[in-house]
Structures are given as structure tokens and as C-alpha cells.
């Protein structure tokens, strides 16, 4: 066993990197093999290598019960990105297999759970590149399950924590990149998304309730993940408001946990969506919970409520009036960020109402 003195980067609870370059991952979950024979949940699974040169892969989930409902109707397509701080987790692990399987069983959608490369062996932007390759592959319906059962016009992106961050960045890329113009994204689901920045939000200050992460540690995470090439105001981590406001997806669901250190980042993101009017945004807060609580095998009833909300969002076809299942919060917005917002996105009334919520 190596000594504490040999540690080069202490990124617990995710991993420890030693002076000799070796890595000990701490947040692990056992591998679960795929099975095309449906289990108790009625879901069949199989693995696909998307790009042999990088190793980016995916696990596909297909509900046989959904196929019985209407054999002629195509199923929604969900591209799911797992969390884990960009440095841990796998689509093939028990933790994320179980969640994607539940998502498939409850929604009846075809789920593509992406297994992307992790830092520090593969620093950011490797995870984004893999996520994009997987999204392009899923949208092209290159796999027999996708071509036969999935509806590319009814495609959603979903993820928690780092996966929620990936969802945002993939939605931005789909809207701006030349090779994303042929892609149709019905909606996005960001569960406790990992966003950060150099200026503290209220949920990141004066915490005496011992959140899962502390801000001083999170300050070190992004430079570690990017091998020192980017800081905490990197737009991939701290999205500019005008970028969020311009997202063209039809609808979005942003969920946070009330005890989560990054809670107010999610609230801020949903506020930008509401200002922009380009995307119908919905917001949901889980009371008394911390980051990624819904993945805990012993999660309380609040995990079921969150799943119900996510399933409702993914399953319905009509837009509901915008509602915020949370009390308005004070959000710190640097003046320079407000000055960058284009007035073309909002009306004076919208700005007045939103500023009252922000301050």
C-alpha cells in the first residue's frame, strides 16, 4: 500500500493519483454484463463499440413491454450520460446500468447509455469528444435496434452531475456545429448538473450542514480534469448566459437537490433558460437531499419523486405552463455577465421579472 506522502493529486472521493502516475479509483461500482434476454424489468441490453480508435462505447436498453404497446409506433430515444466528476463511473457499472434500465422500463424509450473516456488518463475534452461521437452515432440510427425501434425526431439528452454538464455542452454543439444541423433534439434533462465558477453562489458559502463536497476542493477539480489547461470560468463549466438563453431545444428539465453545493448553479441555469424563451424550461428541487442522491440504492422516497418527474417530462408530448417547484433564491450574477446578454432575447418585462428573482 502506498504512503500518503506519495500522493500527487488527492481527488477523493473519486480517486487518488500518485507521484509515479498510477491511479487508485475509489468511487467504483461492479461491472454488470449485458443480456439480450429481458430480466424482471422487461428490458433487454447489449453493448456496442462506437469508435474502436478511441474505445467510446455504449450500452443499449430496449423495453420489450414498450414494443408490445404499439408495434408500429417508433419509441423515443434517450442518450444518457452518466455522472462521476468526469473521472469515475461507467455505463457498464451496476450503479449506472440500474438507473438507465429503470429509465428505459419507466419511459418505454430506447436508451443509449454512453461510456466515455475519463480523466486524468484522458483529460477534457476527451469526454466531450466521445459524447459527441456517441450522439452523432445514435442520431444516425446506425445500430439495428435504433433503426428499427427509435424515433430520431423524438430524441432526448439526459444526465446527472458531470453527465448533466455534458448534456448542456452537447446541446450547444448540436445548435452551433456544422455537423449538428441535421440533428433534432426534443429536450434535455440536467439532474444536479455540475457547473462551477470563480465567483461563489449562496449555496457555496457559509455551509455548516456538511455538504457532500466543499468549495475549496471543487475549485481544484476542473484544472485537474483539464490537465491544467482551463480554469473555473471555462465556458464549458461556467456557461455564459447568452449561450444558455439561445439553446434551441424544444424543452428542458433542470433538477437540483436542496443540500447540494452546486444547487444554485442549476437554479441560475434554469433562470437563463426562462429569460431566453428559446427553450421551454422546467425546474424541480428535491428537498433535504444532496448531490446525486437518486443513485443511492437506499435512497428515500424523494428519489422516486424525482424519477416520476423525469419520466413525466420524457413521456408527455405537450408543454406544461412553466412552474418552479422551489422557492425563488438569491443568485449572484456578475454585472459583466448581465451586460453581455443580448436584448433581442428578452423583453423589458421579462428582464424586470427575472431581475427581481435574481436579486
From TrEMBL:
<dbReference type="InterPro" id="IPR050466">
    <property type="entry name" value="Carboxylest/Gibb_receptor"/>
</dbReference>
<dbReference type="Pfam" id="PF07859">
    <property type="entry name" value="Abhydrolase_3"/>
</dbReference>
<protein>
    <recommendedName>
        <fullName>Alpha/beta hydrolase fold-3 domain-containing protein</fullName>
    </recommendedName>
</protein>
<dbReference type="InterPro" id="IPR013094">
    <property type="entry name" value="AB_hydrolase_3"/>
</dbReference>
<feature type="domain" description="Alpha/beta hydrolase fold-3">
    <location>
        <begin position="78"/>
        <end position="294"/>
    </location>
</feature>
<dbReference type="InterPro" id="IPR029058">
    <property type="entry name" value="AB_hydrolase_fold"/>
</dbReference>
Amino acid at each position: 500500500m502506498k504512503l500518503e506522502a506519495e500522493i500527487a493529486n488527492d481527488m477523493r472521493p473519486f480517486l487518488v493519483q500518485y507521484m509515479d502516475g498510477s491511479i487508485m479509483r475509489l468511487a467504483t461500482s461492479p461491472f454488470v454484463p449485458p443480456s439480450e434476454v429481458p430480466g424482471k424489468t422487461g428490458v433487454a441490453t447489449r453493448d456496442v463499440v462506437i469508435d474502436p480508435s478511441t474505445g467510446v462505447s455504449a450500452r443499449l436498453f430496449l423495453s420489450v413491454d414498450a414494443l408490445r404497446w404499439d408495434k408500429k409506433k417508433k419509441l423515443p430515444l434517450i442518450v444518457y450520460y452518466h455522472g462521476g466528476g468526469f473521472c469515475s463511473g461507467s455505463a457498464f457499472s451496476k450503479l449506472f446500468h440500474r438507473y438507465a434500465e429503470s429509465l428505459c422500463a419507466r419511459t418505454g424509450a430506447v436508451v443509449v447509455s454512453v461510456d466515455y473516456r475519463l480523466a486524468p488518463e484522458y483529460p477534457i475534452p476527451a469526454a466531450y469528444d466521445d459524447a459527441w461521437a456517441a450522439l452523432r452515432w445514435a442520431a444516425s440510427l446506425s445500430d439495428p435496434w435504433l433503426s428499427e425501434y427509435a424515433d430520431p425526431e423524438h430524441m432526448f439528452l439526459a444526465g446527472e452531475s458531470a453527465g448533466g454538464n455534458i448534456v448542456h455542452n452537447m446541446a450547444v454543439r448540436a445548435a452551433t456545429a456544422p455537423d449538428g444541423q441535421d440533428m433534432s433534439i426534443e429536450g434535455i434533462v440536467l439532474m444536479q448538473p455540475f457547473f462551477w465558477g470563480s465567483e461563489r453562489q449562496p449555496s457555496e458559502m457559509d455551509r455548516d450542514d456538511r455538504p457532500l463536497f466543499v468549495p475549496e476542493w471543487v475549485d481544484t477539480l476542473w484544472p485537474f480534469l483539464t490537465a491544467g489547461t482551463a480554469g473555473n470560468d471555462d465556458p464549458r463549466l461556467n456557461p455564459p448566459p447568452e449561450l444558455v438563453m439561445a439553446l434551441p431545444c424544444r424543452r428542458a428539465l433542470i433538477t437540483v437537490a436542496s443540500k447540494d453545493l452546486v444547487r444554485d448553479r442549476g437554479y441560475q441555469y434554469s433562470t437563463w433558460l426562462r429569460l431566453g424563451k428559446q427553450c421551454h424550461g422546467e425546474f424541480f428541487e428535491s428537498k433535504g437531499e444532496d448531490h446525486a442522491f437518486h443513485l443511492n440504492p437506499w435512497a428515500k422516497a424523494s428519489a422516486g419523486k424525482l424519477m416520476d418527474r423525469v419520466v413525466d417530462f420524457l413521456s408527455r408530448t405537450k408543454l406544461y405552463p412553466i412552474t418552479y417547484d422551489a422557492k425563488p433564491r438569491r443568485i449572484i450574477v456578475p454585472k459583466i455577465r448581465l451586460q453581455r446578454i443580448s436584448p433581442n432575447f428578452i423583453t423589458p418585462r421579462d428582464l424586470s421579472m427575472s431581475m427581481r428573482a435574481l436579486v
